[in-house]
Structure formats: C-alpha cells, structure tokens
Amino acid sequence: MVKVCLSLLSHFKKLKSRIRLSPKLKASFTILEKARSRLQRSLILFLTKYMFYDIIYSMRKGFMLKGSVSKVIIYMLATVGIVATPVVGGIIGRAIEDQRWSRICDGVNIVEICQDNSGTKYKKYLLHAAEPEKTKQVHHEAEPEKSHIVKHDAVYGTRQVRGDCIRTNISYKHGTCALSRCRDGMYSGSTGWGTCNYHGGVAVTGGPWYQYTTESYVVTPAWEEKIVDVPAKPAWTETVVVSPAKAEWIEKIVEK
C-alpha cells in the first residue's frame, strides 16, 4: 500500500502539499480520489488492482483486516469506480473470510478458526493426547475366620447283658445252675437217669441257661462341631482402576 502511495506521488507533485502521509490509508485513498479525474480509467483499474492484491498479500501474511479498516478499503475501491459498493463489499468480505479460515489446523498450535487439508472448516480442532490408565492401591486388613459351633447329642444303643445262671428249683439240688428243664417248668441240676421223674420228664437239656437283661450304652458320645462360615484372609493389596486408558483423539467442531 505504501508502494502505491509513492508511485502516485511521483505523478502528482502538484498535490504533494495537500497530501499527508500520516496516516497512510488516508493518503492512499486521497490520491486515488484525485487520480480518478486525471488518469485514464485503465490506469486507475491497474493501480486499484495492484493495491487490492497488496492488501490480500498483507492479509495472508497474518495482518487481519477488521472493523473500520475493512470499511476504509471498501470505500477506497468504490471511490475509484470499481463496480458498486455492495459488490466490492462482497469481494472484500469473502477475502477477509477466506483469510480467517486459511490456516491449516494442527490440533496443537492452531486449534480454532482453521481448516484441514480437505478444506473442511472447524471452529475447534483440538488434539487431546493419549492418557494412561490411572490406578490406585487399596490396602485391605487381615480378616479373622468366622465360624459357629454346632453341638451334637450322644448316640445310644442297646445290648443284651448276661446275668446269673438259672438256678435249680428242685429241692435235692436247689441253688445250683440248672442243666435240665422239666416239662412242668421246674429246673434240675442233673442230666442222668431219673432227671425230672416227678415233674413230667425232661423237656430240654443242655444247660446251664443264663438270665439276660437289656441295657443301653453310648455308641457316640456328645460332641461339638466347628462350622467355618468365612475362612480367614491375610492382609492384601488390591489395584483399583480409577480411570481407564484413553487413546489419542481430536475434538472437532465443524463450521456449519
């Protein structure tokens, strides 16, 4: 833009006293207003085009044209007769808009108002680094055994116990162990001839016989059984995952 001003000044020395080089923008469009009535239209268009591309070049170098500056440029171009102000405004607006989105998103240094290599525009393009798994160690104290006692009663059985022998009740051998039983139920201590002569004869021989009684006895004594509900645990350490690992990802908000 400064180059344009100097070029025009060399052709209009008469206007030098009327030109104030500061600010530069004011000097630029003042010169062009004067040049409009004195130069051929082709030269005006050439200078304007030259000026326009110089502006775009500056924009691509990172100098943003916003607010009042863009309005001055629109007025300046309209002054020298390039189309109508709305059209010029559209051209400048698109140029400014393209410049805003011209940066290539990398997710690290350029994370907003940018585009990828395919031309897709993003309001936000932020690369989130991979995150490792986060864990913590939880210590558990030793736990005692938990149990209860079950009491079992004694188990009893019965058995026959032999007592004294059956005694004779015949007078001549009264009180000895009976060896024969007479037919009338009396017992005799002999087995020879004449046994039970007066009692109907011998019914059964082969004694002695014994008297038996039934008694109970302990088969299994009373006892206690220990039932383990929960076995004892030693002290131990558990690794608990607080947050799982995350892979690298890109947060994208597309410009609609």
In brief, what are we looking at here?
With 256 residues, this protein is an alpha+beta fold. The chain has helices spanning 2-11, 24-36, 41-60, 67-79, 85-100; strands at residues 112-115, 121-128, 134-140, 146-152, 155-165, 180-182, 187-188, 202-205, 210-220, 223-230, 236-243, 249-254.
Could you please describe the fold and organization of this structure?
It is a single chain. The chain is an alpha+beta fold. Among the domains are: 2-100, no CATH class; 167-208, no CATH class. Helix content is 28%, strand content 31%. The protein has five helices and twelve strands. The strands form five sheets. It has a three-stranded antiparallel beta sheet with strand order 1-2-12, with no helix packed on it. β6 (180-182) and β7 (187-188) form a beta hairpin. The radius of gyration is 64 Å and the shape is rod-shaped. The two termini are 35 Å apart. The model is unreliable at 1-22, 59-72 and 77-85 (pLDDT under 50).
